[in-house]
Amino acid sequence: MDMHTVVVGTSGTTAEDVVAVARHGARVELSAAAVEALAAARLIVDALAAKPEPVYGVSTGFGALASRHISPELRAQLQRNIVRSHAAGMGPRVEREVVRALMFLRLKTVASGHTGVRPEVAQTMADLLNAGITPVVHEYGSLGCSGDLAPLSHCALTLMGEGDAEGPDGTVRPADELLAAHGITPVELREKEGLALLNGTDGMLGMLVMALADLKNLYTSADITAALSLEALLGTDKVLAPELHAIRPHPGQGVSADNMLRVLAGSGLTGHHQDDAPRVQDAYSVRCAPQVNGAGRDTLDYAAVVAGRELASSVDNPVVLPDGRVESNGNFHGAPVAYVLDFLAIVAADLGSICERRTDRLLDKNRSHGLPPFLADDAGVDSGLMIAQYTQAALVSEMKRLAVPASADSIPSSAMQEDHVSMGWSAARKLRTAVDNLARIVAVELYAATRAVEIRAAQGLTPAPASQAAVAALRAAGAEGPGPDRFLAPDLAAADTFVREGRLVAAVEPVTGRLA
Predict the structure, then answer these.
(1) What is the pLDDT at residue 97?
(2) Backbone angles phi, psi at 234, to 5 degrees
(3) What's the domain count of the chain?
């Protein structure tokens, strides 16, 4: 566990903080300013709770039941009840890193001083993260409006010492046992606190932040595999010239072209071996790789802007304002986050699609310009990578289904009080699957392209130094090179791990310099 400490204050949190806590077990600490802001906001809530006038979330019911005024002696029960009743998730457990991101981001908003939660509740949230206690959260239960209600409720239930949670050893136990084992006292929720723990876009935001980190690696990896495929197909690198991309100045396009050009520097294969079958132009999947990869990069940049704004936000309803007002609002609506989650699923599907088209071209003897059918050792006796492309095609087909936007849907809830919802949690869940699939798709292209480059080398041609570095690193990682047919799944799994861990990028950068 990484013992780096992330300090949670009253200002925005960075994407790097989220990844550090969610994935790498970084410790969490409340700043003195956060504790002070928490205490000040709590004084406002306590003052409102003492007044006879009803205030939503403080002395009323919730949602469609907000018209009922709740007497002081029932308010603790009200807060417990909202957590218990809203912890209604179903289906498989959500991944540990997602739940940790969810908890951390809710703590971030609580610590802003706009929710009215007491400092000791916030400290208990930090204590749970630092102890490695992860509430059991289920796949289904959020509509992405009024926050990720059911997922956050399961987290709040653990704070109360109820329900089940996973300990740092990975064992699921009753929450009260885990809290006791780590010396953590369950919280007794007071006015507004139950509502404040449930009312945020934290789940969809956490998944967006982690998807952006993964996709950044995959887009750079895809620039590399596109370059390897271009080289193996004896394509021309002239289409990567900076002056061509300067006249269509989409930023990502220029970045991808530059990455590919640097990978191909010094190649003895590109653009010099077309005499036997002259080509005026390479196929779109080869020639237009910078345009497709680059458009996806620009989409990532926009999504990162949205994520940054959401990380700087305090999402709750009602919110405590510095002038002492407690006001209802609609900031919990997940539309801004949901839209970019869906947008990322679209560009990821298209990136997977163009990767698969290059793989198919490498395997087809009628379009591969001298490579053996399916890159097989003895075609006919050997099938080579024929079925690897089937697997890749199946993944691409699922990516296209996952690209159907969730945010275009809405379903009314809470007796029509909550009559338009974002479905942002659903958008985030399908994006996680899409990102996972994309890593496999890129890995199959890498496996095919490196085999093809090695076959070209055996034909007496000299691959680029960066290509040679990629081949050597992939082989050292356990994905074998050309030869007779063998059990292929372990090689593809090794290539998948190699890509998703960022080792492809790390392998070529000593030759190319840092790639964007």
Answers:
(1) 98
(2) 60, 40
(3) 2
Which residues have a catalytic role annotated? 56
92 and 115 fall within a common domain = yes
Return the CATH number at 467.
1.20.200.10
Considering the domain boundaries, does residue 464 fall inside one?
A: yes
Q: The domain that contains 180 carries what CATH number?
A: 1.10.275.10
Is 516 part of any domain? Answer: no
Q: What pLDDT digit, counting tens, does each position of 322-346 carry?
A: 888 888 898 999 999 999 999 999 9
Print the domain residue range for 11: 5-200
- Direct distance between the N- and C-terminal alpha carbons of the chain, in angstroms, rounded to an integer: 28
Domain C-terminal end among 200, 218, 246 = 200
Q: Please spell the DSSP secondary structure of 123-183, one letter per residue.
A: HHHHHHHHHT-EE--EEE---SSSSSHHHHHHHHHHHTT-SEEE-TTS-EEEHHHHHHHTT
Both 402 and 253 in one domain: the answer is yes
Tokens of 388: 């690897």
Task: State the pLDDT confidence band at 2, using cuts at 50, 70 and 90.
Answer: very low
Residue 80 scores a pLDDT above 60: yes
Q: What is the C-alpha to C-alpha distance for residues 465 and 204, in angstroms, rounded to an integer?
A: 41
Pairing type for strands 172-174 and 164-166 reads: antiparallel
3-class SS at 418? strand
Q: Is the dihedral of CA 43, 49, 51, 53 positive or negative?
A: positive
Among candidate residues 146, 173, 167, 18, the one with its CA nearest the CA of residue 86: 146
| Last residue in a domain, options 174, 200, 226 | 200
79 in a structural domain: yes
pLDDT of residue 75: 87
32 and 127 together in one domain: yes
Question: How open is the CA angle 195-199-204, to the nearest 5 degrees?
Answer: 155
Query: What Cα–Cα distance (Å) separates residue 483 from each residue in 47, 226, 457?
Result: 77, 23, 14
pLDDT digits (tens, 9 = 90+) for 415-443: 888 888 999 999 999 999 999 999 999 99
Q: Which residues contact 492 (CB under 8 A, 6 or more apart)?
A: 388, 391, 440, 443, 444, 447, 479
Work out the burial of residue 354: count CB atoms within 10 Å of its CB; fewer than 13 is exposed, 13-18 middle, 19 or more buried. buried
pLDDT value of residue 278: 62
Note whether 136 and 239 are same-domain residues: no
